[in-house]
Amino acid sequence: xxxxxxxxxxxxxxxxxxxxxxxxxxxxxxxxxxxxxxxxxxxxxxxxxxxxxxxxxxxxxxxxxxxxxxxxxxxxxxxxxxxxxxxxxxxxxxxxxxxxxxxxxxxxx
Length: 109
Ligand code: FES
Prior knowledge:
Elements: E1 5-11, E2 22-28, E3 31-38, E4 41-46, E5 60-62, E6 65-67, E7 74-76, E8 82-84, E9 93-94, E10 96-99, E11 102-107
Antiparallel strand pairs: 1-11, 2-3, 3-4, 4-9, 5-6, 6-7, 7-8, 10-11
Bound molecules: FE2/S2 (inorganic) cluster.
């Protein structure tokens, strides 16, 4: 059974511009999250890097990872695990879905 509640965080249409992968910062209950759309898949992670202050939503996406724009640490989009230094701590990830024209995050806090 799913823990938490689904919270609408963005219009799905805002992830349709461009065509390639897209990342966006959203707010959920006062917390900043980074939501990415890669193909038909959505991913949601904490927006703030676990190394220092930087916004992962502004990072490049490649091969299932997001690159922190400040020092280049890589985080797995599915798990939040660190795939490249200097960060050593993972970031939290959240379930995401698109429904009724909106993007929803399963919020468990
Ligand atoms: S702030 Fe993200 S790797 Fe340093």
